[in-house]
Amino acid sequence: xxxxxxxxxxxxxEGPDEPFGEEIHLGGEVSTSQLTIIEPGGSLLQExxxxxxxxxxxxxxxxxxxxxxxxxxxDLTPGDHFVKIPALDNYTLHxxxxxxxxxxxxxxxxxxFFEQYGAAASATAMPTxxxxxxxLDGFMEAFESLSPADRQTMATYYHANKGLxxxxxxxxxxxxxxxxxxxxxxxxxxxxxxxxxxxxxxxxSKSVFTLAxxxxxxxxxxxxxxxxxxxxxxxxxxLETIRSEFEKANxxxxxxxxxxxxxxxxxxxxxxxxxxxxxASDATAPTGGLAEFFASTSLFNGxxxxxxxxxxxxxxxxxxxxxxxxxxxxxxxxxxxxxVAMTHDLFANISISVSGSNLTLETFDLTDGMNLNxxxxxxxxxxxxxxxxxxxxxxxxxxxxxGGSTSxxxxxxxxxxxxxxxxxxxxxxxxxxxxxxxxxxxTSERDIIxxxxxxxxxxxxxxxxxxxPPLGSQSVTISFTPEQAREYQGELVVVNDVDDRNNILxxxxxxxxxxxxxxxxxxRFHGQPMNTYIVxxxxxxxxxxxxxxxxxxxxxxxxxxxxxxxxxDHSRTYMYNYDSxxxxxxxxxxxxxxxxxxxxxxxxxxxxxxxxxxxHFEMTVDGELLSMTMDFALLGNGNLYMVMTNVxxxxxxxxxxxxx
Length: 660
Hints:
alpha+beta, 36 strands, seven-stranded mixed β-sheet, 8 helices, Immunoglobulin-like, disordered N terminus, eight-stranded antiparallel beta barrel
C-alpha cells in the first residue's frame, strides 16, 4: 500500500494547536511545494516517521542514516509553521514558509531546464543505456500536452526544488575525493526525490520528482562505476626481504622470517604493491572513503525498488510509454590483483614506526631504484648484553580509500665487522687458480684486531692479520686452487677481538677435470708428419742444407702433479770442402755426421698463476738442466696443439698431438 506524505486530515485531538516541544530548532526558510530535509541528529532506525506540521499529520521518509525528507504542501499558508516528530522525543523545528512564485511563464521556466537536463543525461549515460533521456523525452511530450494550469503547477514544483535539480545538473572537480562527494550527493538527491516520486499520488508532483530521481540515479550510477572501476582500488602491501650480508652464514641465533639490520647502517628493502578493484566482500569491513562509498551504495540500492514503482506508475498513467526499469549496483565477487610499481606518490602514503625499547628509526626514504631505504639505531649499545636487539618494524599504508598495516620482526646487530664479497667461485679446472676480493669493513668506532682468517681446503688468502681502524676497511684476495675434481665448500672465518657474529661467510667452488690431462701422442711436428726431416732456413748454404733433423716420436702424459715426456729424434750434419775462394761452385761434400737422441723423463710442474693453459717445469737434456714451458690449446678436431719453449734461449717447437 503506498505511503503518502501529502496533507492528511486529522482530528483536533491528534495534534496540538500550538507550538510544542521543550526546544525549538530553526528549520530556516522554505517554499511551498519544496522537498524539505530534516536532520534531527543521531541515527534514524525507522524507514518513515509520523510528523506533525502544525496540527496536520504527515509522513517523513528516511533518505540516509541521519536525514528525513517530506514535501512542504503546495497550499500551505505562508508564515511561521512548526514541525514535530513524536518518535524522536518531540523533536521540533520552526520553518518560515514563503509562497513559491514563478518569475516567468511555465514555458520560459522549463525550457532552459530541459536543455540542461538533456546535457546532463548525455554526460552521465552508460554505454548501452540512457534512462534519463528516455524519461525526459516522455516528460517533455507530456508537458506539451498539459493544460496551462497543470504546466504552471509542474513549473512551480520544479522552481521550488531548483536547488535539488542544480545539485545534480551542476558538476565539480574530478579528483577522487570529489567523485566520492558527488556520488554521495547524487545518492542523497536520488533518495529524497525517490520518496516523493514513490509516495505522492499526485501525478504532476510524482512526474517531476521521478524526473529528478531518474537523473540522480543515472548520475549516481555513472559516478559509481567511475569510482569503483577507475578510482577505488584495494591495496596490498608486502615487504620482499633482501638477504643482508649478515644473513649469508648459517649460524646460531639467526633471525628467521624477518629483517636484519646493522646498528646505524641503512639497508635497502624492496616493497611489493598490488591493487585490485573493490569486491562485494569489502563492504563488510570498509576503510576510509570506502565506508562512505558502501553506505551510499546501500542507500542507492534501497531506493531502486521505490523508483521503479514510480517509473511504472508514470509509464502506465502519465506518459503511456515504456521507460525501462533500472537495476541495482553490484560489485563482483572477486577481482584479480595487479602489480604496480612504487612511485613517490605511493611512498608518501606509507607510514613507518619501530617497536623496541632500545631502538630508533634513523632513516626512511625512497631510493632512485624505488626501494625503501631503512636505517635503525640501537640507542644504548653498552646496555645490551646480547650482540643484537630485537623489535618489530610497523608499516602502514593509507590513502583516501585504503588503510592497512603490517608488523615485521627485525633484529638490529651491534656494529662491528662487515664482510663484503661474493666467494662463490664456480668451476675451476685442476691446476687453475681463481681469485675473488673480500673486503673487511670496520663499522664501529674502535679498532678491530684481526688475528687470522680461517679457510677450508682449496682456498687461501693473501692477508690474514692486522688492525682495522674505526670505519676503515681492508681488501683481501681469496684464491681457489682445486687439486681434485670435486666440490670444495666451507666457511671463511675472520678471527678478531670484537665481532664473533658477523665474521663468517660461506665459500664454495668446484674443481673440474683439466682438459689437458691424459696421454697425448704427436702426429705432426712443426706442421709436418712425424719422422720428416726439417731444415731451418738458417741452415741452408748454397742451396743445400748444412743441418736437418727429424722427430721420430713424441709423447707427453699430464697428471695432476707430474708431467712425463718420452721422445726420440735424429739429425744429420753435412760437412763440405771449399776451394781457397770459398765458392759454392767448387764446394764438395766431404762427410755426413748423424746424431740421435732419446729422452724419457717424469718431472713435476706448476700451472702458470695467470694462465691455466700454460705449465712451467724443469728437465735435463744432454746432461743440462733446462727451464721449460708448455702452452696448450685444444683444436677444433679434438687434438691438442702444444708449444714447448726453452725459457733461456727462447727456442720453441710446435706439436699437434692426439689423445691416446
